[in-house]
Task: inverse folding
């Protein structure tokens, strides 16, 4: 997980120790409290909430994607696929896209957050992975698999 925190520190332009502190001290109650204060109802309010709170997801998703056995169990069956066209919706920090690309698939990343998408792009570029990034589903088609892991919360 430290390697991803190093990537995050570089992305945010902060020292590694500060990034690690943010990741390890974050808890899901922070985002829940913000949600409960805003109480978004309409699709546009919900979109805006996720877009404006995306920095918190940087801190939440790293330990979830790299230190949680439940997440690993959920994605393990997907890593058996090869040479597939895969769309990941709500792709967050790009961890699953990276794993699926390494497994030999052509992957498309989709997330509404500009900040999460920018971090994921840095991670893809660092690995030399050509993973298209989109922010909505308009015009997308012809996928063998569509993944929405932890998307409906």
Result:
């Amino acid at each position: 997980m430290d390697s991803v925190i190093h990537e995050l520190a570089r992305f945010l332009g902060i020292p590694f120790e500060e990034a690690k502190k943010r990741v390890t001290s974050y808890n899901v109650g922070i985002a829940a409290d913000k949600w409960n204060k805003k109480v978004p109802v309409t699709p546009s309010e919900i979109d805006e909430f996720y877009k404006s709170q995306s920095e918190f997801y940087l801190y939440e998703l790293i330990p979830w994607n790299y230190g949680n056995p439940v997440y690993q169990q959920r994605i393990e069956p997907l890593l058996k696929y090869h040479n597939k066209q895969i769309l990941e919706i709500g792709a967050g920090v790009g961890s699953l896209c990276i794993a699926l690309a390494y497994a030999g698939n052509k992957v498309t990343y989709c997330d509404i957050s500009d900040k999460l998408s920018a971090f994921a792009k840095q991670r893809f570029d660092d690995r030399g992975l050509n993973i298209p990034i989109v922010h909505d589903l308009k015009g997308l088609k012809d996928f063998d698999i569509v993944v929405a892991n932890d998307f409906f919360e």
